[in-house]
Amino acid sequence: MAKMTFESALKQLEAIVSELESGDLALEEALKKFEEGMKLSKFCSQKLDETEKRITQLIQQADGQVTETPFED
After folding, report:
1. Could you give the CA distance from residue 55 to residue 21 in angstroms, rounded to a whole number?
2. Which residues are paired to 64 by β-bridges?
3. Can you give the pLDDT at residue 55?
4. Which alpha helices (DSSP H) does 1-73 contain, by range?
5. Burial, 26: exposed, middle or buried (Cβ in 10 Å; 0-12, 13-18, 19+)?
6. pLDDT score, position 60
7. Are 39 and 16 in contact (CB under 8 A)?
């Protein structure tokens, strides 16, 4: 998945979910799509974790202290 962006991975993941939900795939093809979807899901999750860490590092108080601010649900 070199050079893949979060957005392109998410689009591929959404397409796979749509294909799986259609119920039109043979069992083996559905399993391959599911495995591909799991890899894409892991990639997206890692990108979100990396982004959260970067944002946390960028949030600073006026005195220069870094403050961790949790994301809202």
Report:
1. 35
2. none
3. 80
4. 6-22, 27-58
5. exposed
6. 62
7. no
**pLDDT value, residue 70:** 63
Q: Which amino acid is at 69?
A: T
Kindly report the pTM of this predicted structure: 0.74
The long-range contacts involving 29-36, CB below 8 angstroms and separated by at least 24 positions, are 36/12
> Which parts of the chain have pLDDT scores under 50?
none
Rounded to a whole number of angstroms, the distance between the first and last alpha carbons of the chain is 29
Structure tokens at 34: 């599911």
40, 13 contact by CB (below 8 A)? yes
Give ∠ CA 32-33-38 in degrees, rounded to 5.
100
